[in-house]
Protein 1
Amino acid sequence: MSKPKKLNRKQELELKATELFKEKGYTASSMRDLATKVGIEAPSLYSHISSKEEILRTICFRIANEFFEAIELVDQKAHNSSYTILESYIVSHIQVIIKNTSASLVFFNEWKHLSEPYLGEFKSKRSEYERRFHRILKKGMENNEFIEMDEKFVVLTILSALNWIPHWYDPKGKWTPEEIGGYISRMLLHGILIK
Amino acid sequence: MSKPKKLNRKQELELKATELFKEKGYTASSMRDLATKVGIEAPSLYSHISSKEEILRTICFRIANEFFEAIELVDQKAHNSSYTILESYIVSHIQVIIKNTSASLVFFNEWKHLSEPYLGEFKSKRSEYERRFHRILKKGMENNEFIEMDEKFVVLTILSALNWIPHWYDPKGKWTPEEIGGYISRMLLHGILIK
DNA sequence: CCTACCGATCGGTAGG
DNA sequence: CCTACCGATCGGTAGG
């Protein structure tokens, strides 16, 4: 049993909006839909938020920050191989996704509806994040830990497998985040390790 | 040089709609956007199509059929191992994606905006397709070709890696479809093969 | 947090 | 393929 969290109205709005955007997509979700879900009239939403896009922005950047924080925790620890760093990156990434299954789906699917300058900021954050994976793969290849391959390709393949998790992960299912992390690391990494 | 294809108006509509839906998403794309792209007025679209959703339907089911046809060609050939079947499934799947980079993105991202009964039909087709992968994985595990793993998990991981390809594949880039198929098969399959 | 309401835009039709 | 136009719905504001 997790203890019931006390949410203020703004947090409740974000939570309900996340569910709504996940199910119908951002553009197809109307502020009237959201108001109905929350149990108030549409114009009343605007005493808590300033626009529909603000909600999307909050969701997308909150998740982006969680991904970065997770990876930075990994970097702060000592590691003896590129393999263990990459594995930790993968497990951390999965943990963020699993802690935020709905929000991460919105993050992956709806970010393109952000407007400038937020859209540009979002894209550059994402590139920076991918670059972290890129770097460790390159290092591992130089170390002769990983097979020589195009890193861009490997990064994209790893991240695509990870980023699909919210589509099928069942919080009430039999797998813990750690088990999923273990399975997916084994499957992805053993394919690129020199044996 | 590919020879210029002669498209009729309806095919041109579908092509332009595919580009539009890919860039802005189905819901955020208006019929006026599409009309402008084609160079006519919005109401004129309706002498070629009956509704906005009809276009989405055409795109989604055309791609679904291409995936099925590709996999059935594989089934018709003789194979000596589950490994070679699975590898052929993967390469065929990639070829369909690469032949239809924009349309497959629409297929993956916008199908949820189909209405019933098409939505149900779409979902059941997709399940059937996944079941083909499921079956060959199970067989390969019984054969002791593949490591014993949860097949659902493996299928989803493979397909997620494949289905991300249209996000990054550059038709003018250095990789041929065959090379991508080879790389991705090696990376995904060697992780699940008993050595 | 509500009622009343705005201009803009939506998918689509009528009629030619 | 066009002009003229429809009812519905959109995000959001005014004023309380």
Protein 2
Amino acid sequence: MIESVISDINRAMDRTSPVPLYFQLAGELQRAISDGRLPKGDFLGNEVDLADRWQISRPTVRRAIKELVDQGLLVRQRGVGTQVVSDHIRRRVTLMSLHDDLEAQGRAPTTTVLTHEVVVADAGIAASLNLAPGSKVVHIERCRTVDGRRLAILRNWITLDTASDITPAQLRGSGLYALLRARGVRPHSAELEIGARIATPTDAALLDLPVGAAVLTTRRVMQDSSGQPVEVGSHIYDASSYTIETNVLSG
Amino acid sequence: MIESVISDINRAMDRTSPVPLYFQLAGELQRAISDGRLPKGDFLGNEVDLADRWQISRPTVRRAIKELVDQGLLVRQRGVGTQVVSDHIRRRVTLMSLHDDLEAQGRAPTTTVLTHEVVVADAGIAASLNLAPGSKVVHIERCRTVDGRRLAILRNWITLDTASDITPAQLRGSGLYALLRARGVRPHSAELEIGARIATPTDAALLDLPVGAAVLTTRRVMQDSSGQPVEVGSHIYDASSYTIETNVLSG
DNA sequence: TAGTGGTCTAGACCACATT
DNA sequence: ATGTGGTCTAGACCACTAC
């Protein structure tokens, strides 16, 4: 790693900040890689030396480097060194809502709320959400349109205590996950099943598709950081305008 | 955590083993959770105390616990403790081949090799594999059958140096990824695009599907641990018999 | 106030790859 | 023989939670 990058990082590190040092360092390294100051193929230099130059301990340096290794930006080889192998941040496998996802691409999604009600969960939903049979949940059904084209039907079931104050107006303006995050839900993991089938008449009507068109279907159960399932989502996409892109790490 | 589990783990830890202590500990904890000795809802006890009982340092204990937190088995809360929130090991997002995947489910896949040849990579494949235009690659086309049913068409393009000695007989007997691993390829990450469409006449003929059936399609570029792309896979699945199941962590 | 996890240090020794 | 990352230690102080 060239001298100037080391100096840049030295300047950027702020010990008075509440942000952990390893996190600051990981961010600075990521920035240096993505803007080309630390190009693909370069070696970082050995950890002991880097720790010394940055005046932080080696475990802290290692922790920062590990973040980038996990993202696929760096590769470590014992006896060799740490090398930059990619200069674009791998899109993480995401739990973002479709709304956020499209906005991040600079497109302007519009949302029609078809259904918004409190219902008694059926057996499958109740089991997925770890609720007693007969429990009530919030059921939402939306249609997502982009560039005048109907893209997806989104059906969600959410535990009553987390979603009881969500309004249709809010759903029109932002993604479900943004609303949940604002209510203190921190998504942690989701089980996801992806399939495909021919559009049913209902699908075709809602998505404005011809008879016989293919749709992509997903069903997920999202759990928040306390390990409790919070939301079930069952989504149907027009396969001719949507693909799921993801990135799988360290299999 | 009850006394006996702590003792079990104390007995199981082996400092003479080349397996890292944090890894041994993580495995023991995972086993204790999955077999019910450490049930859902239980707290582990504080880290300083555990480190003392197991006679290992607290950072090592933390590293082991972190593994399970990342898998969604445990939740840590500052000021509160570490609690078991799930008793089944989340299936990791996998880079396993379909063959391995089905075998893990106890089913017996059979493979027909339709094409196996060295060809000049087209522009898209060459770009994906980071090869010069006109480079040669191994092209494989297989049909995967399970329980007498044609499940998928698998098309792969692999860099010549890694796959030149693979034979059709080997492809019939095991999954592509197993063969690649045996050749020293360690899969590290893959970009994956999932879509759906109506089967083309070719798809329908190869998969023995009726006209108008839906197929699930995936395209991936796999990179090994050195960061180099090694393989491109383009797969087509009978959507009526196959879904992709996965698990998304920490979004 | 007491107890918990979160971060950080300054070393040590080992395994592996290269020369 | 040298240099690298991989693991591990025995502390320290801080931030947050619950009482």
